[in-house]
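Write out this protein's structure.
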Amino acid sequence: MTITSEVARRCLEIDYDTLPEALRDRVKYLLLDYLGVAIRGVLSDSSIPVHRFLGSRGIAHGGVPVCGMRLRVDTPYAALALGVASHSLELDDVVNAASLHPAVSVMSAALAVGAQINSSGRELMEAIVAGYEVTVKLGIALDPAAHYAQGFHPTGTCGTMGAAVAAARLLRLDRQRFVNALGIAGSQAAGSMEFLADGSYTKRFHAGWSAHAGVVAALLAAEGFTGPGSIIEGRFGFLHAYSPASDPDKVLAGWGDPYEVMNTSIKPHACCRYKQGSIDCILQLMQQHQLRPGDVEKVQVAILKAGYALVADPPEAKLKPKSVVDAQFSMPFGAAVAMLKGNAFLDQYCLENVESTDVQQLMEVVECVQDAAIEQDFPRKWPAKVAITTRAGETYHCRIDHPKGDPENPLSWEEIIAKFDSLAGAVLDGGRRNDTVARVRALEQCSSVRELMETLQR
C-alpha cells in the first residue's frame, strides 16, 4: 500500500463521534479565529483586485456566499477569495513544526464546498481535522527549512494537498477518488517565496490558490478524472520534488496522536510568525521596566535560523520596508511599532507607520542576530530572546520559549472572541458577530454550512 493510499484511508476514517471533546472545541476555536481574519481580510488592498476579478463571474442563484461581501460565485472561486482574504492580514493560525498556515487553505476550501453542498457542522469539522492533519504532516515531512531554502512557501504547497483532502471528505469521495484528488492536487501545488524581493501580494495568493486548486482537484476526481496514486512518496512525487531533505516516514508518524489541530497556534500580532515571540519579549520588557521609546539605545533580537531570511535579511531591506507586506516581514519594523505604539496588531501595519519618521528612526536601533541558544529545541519550541539596552546604560533581557498563542501559552476563548470582534467589526454589526460566535460554538448542531456562510455576508 502506498503512503498516498494510506493517507486517504486514514482521512476517510475520521469520525466526529470518536473525536475527543477537547479536539472538537479546538476546531471551533480555530474556525472562529479564521472567520474573523477572513471577514476583515476582504477589506485588504490585495482583496480588491480579486473582487473585481470575481465580479464578472458572479452567480445570481446557487453560488457560494463569500464572507464579508454580497458576492456569490462558483465554489472554486469562493475558495480563492476566502484564501486570499484570510491570509492578507498575517493574523491567521500557524503550526510551528511545519512552519505553515493550515486554516487559510483548509478552511477556505471546506467552507466553500460545505456551502455548495450544504454540509452539516459535524461534516465540516471532520473535513477540517483531516485537512489540517495532511497539510501539517506533509510540512513536517518536507523539512520546513529545506523547503523554504528551495524557494517554496509551504502554505501554498502543502495547503493545496490539505484543501483537496477537506474538499474530498465533504464530497464523500470513495477511497480511489480520494487518492485521485490528492494526485491531481499534487500537480497544482505551488507558491514562490520571491514575494520577499518586493513585497508583492503573491504570498496572499498562495493561500487562495491552494484552496482553489484543492477544490478543483476534488471536483475533478468526483467526475472520474485520475491522478497518480503515489503523488506523495513517488519518484517524482511531492516529497522528492519539493525538498532535498524530505522524510516520507514522517507523513504517517504520530497520526492523530494528537491530531494536528491540537498543535496549532494563534497569532496575536499581525505579522510573520517568526516575529511573534520577539514582539512578546519587547512588550514585556517595555512594560515591566516602564521604558519609553526615547529611553532605548539598542535592541538586540535573536532570530531563529529558519526565519532569518524572512524577517531579518538582507538587513538594509528590512530596515527600509516599502509596503505593508515588507513591514509584515521586517523584524525591525515590528520591534519599532511595539515600542512606539505598545502593540503590533493590525492597525500598526499600515503605510502611515511604514512612512513614519518616528518608526524609521526607532528601527535603526534594532539589531537582528542568530543565536545557537534558541535553536536547540526548534521546531518543537520557537523560542525568542531579546535584550534592550537603555541610554542610562541598563540592559534588560527576556526569553520566551512559547510565544503567546502557542498551545502551551494559549489565548483564551474570551481572547479569541475579542480578536474576532475587533476584526469582523469593520464589516459585520454586533448582532451578526454575536450570532456567528454562537453558531460556531455550537457547530455540532449546525445543519447547514450554507446558512452559516450566508449570515457572514455584508
